[in-house]
């Protein structure tokens, strides 16, 4: 509490000093020069920035240098403002005492710090994290420039609550949050880099690549959290209570999430489902796009993408059309009239199947007589394809169209259903002639 009272007293003294300065002519002159610099910098930025073609100027430059140039152009007005204030400060130092231009120096330092921090933080690609990191860093630098950093830190550390063996203060919360964001960002960058390297490796199967990538991310995130907590001085044993609560929550409220996570790891480990496979799960038919920690995306031929929970691949029946062999057999059922020659029909059917573009020549298509129906001789034509990812209905339709043309050329008829109707009792049929109404004479 003494630190808070001391900080309050320092702020009060500073405000009284500022009020006294406000009554001086020197401060009004500095305010006028700062306002003049802001107006001139804004006009210069409005005039110059639209006339600079950064795309052509930075063509062929390294990516980081191009990024810095774009950030510098985005803060061009602040940069011009800082340079003008520095020029005004140098001019006033040459003719008057330094104390009469101190405010201009402070504002110039703050503007320069903002430009430098924006350039350094530009390596962060996430826009939200970039803005958060830049604003936090500038606040720290601004407090240092104003000589308020140590008093603020002491005041934030003077108030806290004890949770077990841990003393929780606002300063500790801020430090932990900043370090967690920083370490998690580094872990994400390293994880993305290693994941790209794994995906370019031809010695690993797609499922192993995804599995290793997820394990590496999990290890990096865990390591980042441990490093952040240990750096700020938090004893990990003091978090036993929270870890127990998290365990209870996982046991009761997060059963499905844990089940999907474990199911995803099992799928990647046993290679039963991997990216690129053509599968059928329930009513969903398509190929596996990406496998996440909670769900697996299945893209269909009509452009839709289903997110199927990983648990469904373990508990439900899954048809994997390309599990161990890419060759897939399709059946086409048809029937012909009893007046047709079955041997000729089989020959025409095989030739029709061979004429389809995606049907494999080896194994060779075969046609079997499978039954004598009520009004037709039934056949089953079996074909093989190697690219189910390009669709199954379309190739079956091509084969049926070719079969129709072949049977028509061979004079083979596809019969209509025929039924014999037997009447047990006589039925009287009356023919009634209906006459059309004659038009009336008007």
Model description:
The protein is α+β, with helices and mostly antiparallel strands and 442 residues long. It folds into four domains: 2-159, no CATH class; 167-253, no CATH class; 272-320, SH3 type barrels, CATH 2.30.30; 328-409, Alpha-Beta Plaits (2-Layer Sandwich). The chain has 15 helices and ten strands. The relative contact order is 0.05.
Show unreliable segments.
Answer: none
The spatial strand order of the largest sheet comes to 6-5-4-3-7
Question: What's the total number of strands?
Answer: 10
Tally of helical runs = 15
Largest sheet: 5 strands, antiparallel
Share of helix among residues?
55-70%
- Series of H and E elements: HHHHHHHHEEHHHHEEEEHEEHEEH
Topology, element by element:
Layout lengths: L1 H21 L2 H24 L5 H4 L5 H12 L1 H18 L8 H19 L6 H19 L3 H10 L2 E3 L2 E3 L1 H30 L6 H26 L8 H13 L2 H16 L7 E4 L2 E8 L3 E5 L5 E5 H6 L2 E3 L7 E9 L5 H14 L10 E7 L4 E9 L7 H17 L33
Antiparallel strand pairs: 1-2, 3-4, 3-7, 4-5, 5-6, 8-10, 9-10
Helix pairs in contact: 1-8, 2-5, 5-6, 6-7, 9-10, 10-12, 14-15
Keyphrases for this structure?
single chain, 442 residues, alpha+beta, SH3 type barrels, 4 domains, 5-stranded antiparallel beta sheet, 3-stranded antiparallel beta sheet, 15 helices, 56% helix
Q: What is the compact description of this entry?
A:
With 442 residues, the chain is of the alpha+beta class.
